[in-house]
Amino acid sequence: MEPLSDRYLREHTSPLPEALDWIEKQTGIHTNYPQMLSGKVQGSLLKMLVEISGARNVLEIGSFTGYSTACMALGLPEGGHIDALEINDELEDLMRAGWERAGVQDRITLHIGDARKTLGSLAPKVYDLVFIDANKREYPEYFELVFPLLRQGGLLVADDVMLGGKVYADPLPQDAQTRGLLTFNDIMKDDPRVEVVMIPLKDGLSLIRKK
Q1: What 3-state class would DSSP assign to 195?
Q2: Which of 94, 85, 148 has the alpha carbon at shortest distance from 113?
Q3: pLDDT confidence of 76, banded at 50, 70, 90?
Q4: What angle do CA 48, 30, 162 make, to 5 degrees?
């Protein structure tokens, strides 16, 4: 059951186009882990971050069923573009159908495959905003690969950084996902090249600005 606080947040967030409801419904029907979807509040925040930052070039690492991609694409100015990286090719038809319903398909290029390999092929592109929501074990690697592609003053948004409380549990879990996020979070805290604010939205969201 949805927590009352989550319901209140959702009900007091501006509506998104019907196409996003369609993507959410199809995600529930066709995937085993629909809770991985960003959802209305986080999706609306991503859209607003694109808008207020003036981002024209966006990179997404981990698109799942394309909900967050569509939200960010809706916030792009004319001529803006998203490179969306997703490893699961079985989700491609659902993603493309949702993007077409939202009218943003022309703003998105989908790259299917291992994000670490794809990132190596994107240079010398430069991005204004990067959203990471993929394999938690690999967040430290994603950061090292994507940092040179992010412009100075650009924004990196990392999802699931609290991992259901695992990152501050006592004792700390030793699974690979938790270790990956612990390492990533400590890197963000200590790296003088960035400033970070972690907010408790859903499973934790870090807003990271490249100085």
Answers
A1: strand
A2: 85
A3: very high
A4: 50
Q: How far apart are CA 27 and CA 21, in angstroms?
A: 10
| pLDDT attached to residue 123 | 87
Q: Return phi, psi of residue 79, to 5°.
A: 90, -5
Is the pTM of the predicted complex or chain greater than 0.85? Answer: yes
Question: Is the confidence at residue 1, as pLDDT, over 80?
Answer: no
Sheet architecture: strand order including 205-210: 108-112, 81-86, 57-61, 127-132, 150-159, 205-210, 194-199
Average pLDDT over residues 150-179: 96
**No. of helices (H) and no. of strands (E), the chain:** 8, 7
The architecture CATH gives domain 4-210: 3-Layer(aba) Sandwich (3.40)
Predicted local confidence at residue 145, as pLDDT: 96
Listed by start position, the domains of the chain span: 4-210
Q: What is the mean pLDDT of the chain?
A: 96
DSSP 62-82: --TTSHHHHHHHHHPPTT-EE
CA 193 – CA 153 distance, rounded (Å): 10
Both tokens of 41, joined, read 């509040």
CB 155 within 8 A of CB 128: yes
